[in-house]
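ENCODED BACKBONE
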Amino acid sequence: MSSEPSGRRRTGHAWRWALAGLIVVVALAVAVWPRGGDDRTQEQHPASVASGVSADLRAAAHLPDCPSGTASGSGPLSGMTLGCLADGRPVDLAAALAGKPALLNLWAYWCAPCAKELPYLQQYAQRAGNAITVLTVHSDPDEAKALSRLRGLDVRLPGVLDADARLRTAVGAPAVLPISVLVRADGSIADVEVRAFDGVDDIADTVAGKLGVAA
């Protein structure tokens, strides 16, 4: 009769040991299990920053570096960061433009009036020199086609990619292209030209009238 309680005790000890072992195994599994969410974040972050455009395509376009600056930019473009077409690096737009008048030309690779206007802008930039910053803003997510278009037009102006039209929204411009935004040295907007310029003199006269920059 004494053998039955002893058997129960042995069985109870066995179950406790088995349960303890199971807890240890589960804890170890949790500790070493891959964090799927964290890994995806780390793996996808570079892809979300990179545009997929090859360095060879960028180099073939022969675009100059985008303007840069450390000043604290102001105005409606403050806090806006866009990717530079020349090298893909982020550009703090307001800081890059601070201290000098600027002409921002919004365009897209599929826009025929833009293709006609861009060479005029390049000629104007050469004529104006350092008196004003002329920056193209590709308002479409297809960066590769933007680079190919600029190469085909032989236009070599500094440019940025605005895939989701944030700049156009910030200045209150309509959803048409081309658009030229004239920015004062203090970051405020002097004017938004919702049209295509018809020549270098047209650009020079407009900029002189709105920003006081003679060229």
Remarks:
- The longest helix spans residues 3-32.
- Residues 1-8, 24-50 have pLDDT under 50 and may be disordered.
- The longest strand covers residues 102-107.
